[in-house]
Amino acid sequence: MLLKYATGLTGSGPVGRVVAAAAAKNVTPVTIELGSKSPVFIDAGNTDIELAAKRILWGKHQNAGQICVAPDYILIPRAHSRGVHEGVPRVLAPTRRHHARILELLRRTQGKIVHGGNAEGTKRIEPTLVTDVGLDDPLMEDELFGPIIPLVPVDDVHEAIQIIRGRPVPLVIYVFTDSEDTKNKFLESTSSGTLVLNDTFMQLGVHEMPFGGQGESGYGSYLGKFSFDTFVNRRSYINVPPAAEPFLQYRYPPYTEDAFQALSAPANIKIPEH
């Protein structure tokens, strides 16, 4: 087997297009893993909201949110949104680059900052929860890649799915619910690199399944055996020995009736005697 050239990166769709275009000029296969606005849906009527908040925040604050699979925004039924922004402070613990960008997003957002939002010096920003965020809000334009969690109110699971389907395919969708019906709705009606139920981030620890994205979140996959399959090229080969020639005589012209019959019914081929 021969190693093939491939690349993996975390970035945006435009970055992926630059890499793919450069690779195409050299006919080089690539595997591209891009970040995305990975959504979270909380089925508030069928899950423990405080436990969901605890797991979401744990995943969000790995490396201060600067990880490709970090939960990006939360879709929550309007009637239950208060439960999330009341539960977050109870489980939130204090957790650097992109400092000015993150602060500018917080300045521009039309949502309401209900927790955090303060900066310490030039390298630290508090974990921040912003509620009542609209789909056209600056916080929803690109992957945040920082410790901000926008809370986007929806009417129900159907609206949440419609929102996800109307945006670029995310690297991962996180769904918190005890309802098998809700789980099936997301399995059957959404697309993503990975779907994770009732936790965040843990998919990276399961090397028995592939990890990768679709569309704007990349293509190809890796982890465990899938990394080996991705980064090697399986070259097939065949060795036809000269001793097989008696079996192959009928493939040459002239094409007689005997040859036609032999090729139509290989089991009837008779090996010529030497």
From TrEMBL:
CC per GO annotation: cytoplasm
GO MF: aldehyde dehydrogenase (NAD+) activity
GO biological process: aldehyde metabolic process
Keyword Ribosomal protein: no
Pfam families named in the record: Aldedh
Top-level lineage group: Eukaryota
Aldehyde dehydrogenase domain residues: 9-79, 98-235
Annotated InterPro entries: Ald_DH/histidinol_DH, Ald_DH_C, Ald_DH_N, Aldehyde_DH_dom, Aldehyde_DH_NAD(P)
Entry keywords, A to Z: Oxidoreductase
Family under the similarity heading: Belongs to the aldehyde dehydrogenase family.
Name of the protein in its database record: Aldehyde/histidinol dehydrogenase
The species this protein was found in: Mycena rosella
Lineage: Eukaryota, Fungi, Dikarya, Basidiomycota, Agaricomycotina
